[in-house]
Design brief:
Protein name: ABC-type sugar transport system, permease component
Family: Belongs to the binding-protein-dependent transport system permease family.
Subcellular location: Cell membrane
Shape: flat
Number of domains: 2
Radius of gyration: 26 Å
Keywords: Cell membrane, Membrane, Sugar transport, Transmembrane, Transmembrane helix, Transport
Structural class: mainly alpha
CATH class of the largest domain: Mainly Alpha
Helix content: over 70%
Domain ABC transmembrane type-1: 82-282
Distance between the termini: 50 Å
Number of strands: 0
Number of helices: 16
């Protein structure tokens, strides 16, 4: 009896020590992961000449906001692009979740007659696509979405991978007995979906929501292809255009004269654009973090 007690105490002490080591390791690792972000922020507030002389540093030799002054020469343009990106991200994520769920739920049901056909149809689109030219003609000529805000939303509404993850989660985690019981009680399919399926599927909704949010927020490709009016471009495309302008001036500085380049903080501007672009999206992670890992791992167990 005494030996068993001693063994139990020894195991508890060993477990506590192991947890302490693991927690210490991941705490240090988390701090290390934050260093690049802190470095980017510090560089964006560093004077360009100090960067050229001393290089990158977590502790700037000379603070400066010249990079942000350069980017915000026309504040209305940045604010407008921010507004477009925020609207596209919110509207696109919500619509994407609705459409993905409404497609994934039926093909997850065993009693749906054509589930295999529609599942294969989704999988087929992961392997083959119509190509860039037909894709462009479809949205610009036939759907008449070119140079509209909706062309930044509709192309990304349904993603095949996200749809299959959500379908798998529905199949593995929504018991058919609950649905059958609700039917016996007289609940309609819409009521079952809204009041039973969606509350039970919060982890996968959070996971797919995070994927969609990142897709819309980081997109610049659709603005490049479809948007002509400068007042309708999103933030990422505007940042990309500023970066290309700086690169062009940097490559042709010998022809333009040194005085032109002295007024443009090239390296700090690049980092300032990273800070501006990543700022608001960081607030999305705490909202999705609670369900993210569970939704991703459980929803991807089986195909």
């Amino acid at each position: 009896m005494r030996n068993a007690y001693q063994n139990k105490v020894s195991l508890n002490e060993s477990s506590k020590m192991s947890n302490a080591i693991i927690n210490t390791f991941f705490s240090i690792y988390s701090v290390i992961c934050l260093i690049p972000i802190i470095l980017v922020v510090m560089i964006s507030f560093t004077d360009e000449k100090a960067l050229e002389q001393f290089g990158y540093s977590l502790f700037p030799k000379e603070l400066s906001v010249s990079a942000y002054k350069f980017i915000f020469q026309d504040p209305s343009q940045i604010i407008r692009a921010y507004g477009i990106t925020i609207f596209v991200t919110i509207a696109g994520t919500i619509l994407s979740l609705i459409m993905t769920a409404m497609y994934a739920y039926p093909i997850s049901r065993k009693d749906f007659k054509y589930k295999n056909f529609f599942s294969f149809y989704v999988y087929f689109t992961m392997l083959f696509s119509g190509g860039l030219v037909p894709w462009y003609i479809l949205y610009s000529r036939y759907l008449h979405l070119k140079d509209t805000i909706w062309v930044l939303i509709i192309p990304y509404l349904i993603n095949a991978f996200n749809l299959l993850v959500m379908r798998t989660y529905f199949s593995n985690n929504i018991p058919s007995s609950i649905i059958e019981s609700a039917k016996i009680d007289g609940a309609s399919e819409i009521r079952i979906f809204v009041q039973i399926v969606i509350p039970l599927a919060k982890p996968v909704f959070a996971t797919i929501g995070l994927f969609s949010t990142l897709t819309y927020w980081n997109d610049w490709w659709l603005s490049l292809i479809f948007i002509v009016d400068d007042k309708k471009v999103n933030l990422q495309y505007l940042m990309n255009r500023i970066l290309r302008t700086i690169q062009y001036i940097s490559q042709n500085k010998s022809q333009m004269g040194g005085s032109v380049m002295d007024t443009i903080p090239t390296e700090s501007v690049r980092m300032a654009m990273c800070v501006i672009g990543m700022g608001p999206i960081l607030f999305a992670y705490p909202f999705f973090q609670k369900y993210f890992i569970k939704g991703l791992t459980v929803g991807a167990v089986k195909g």
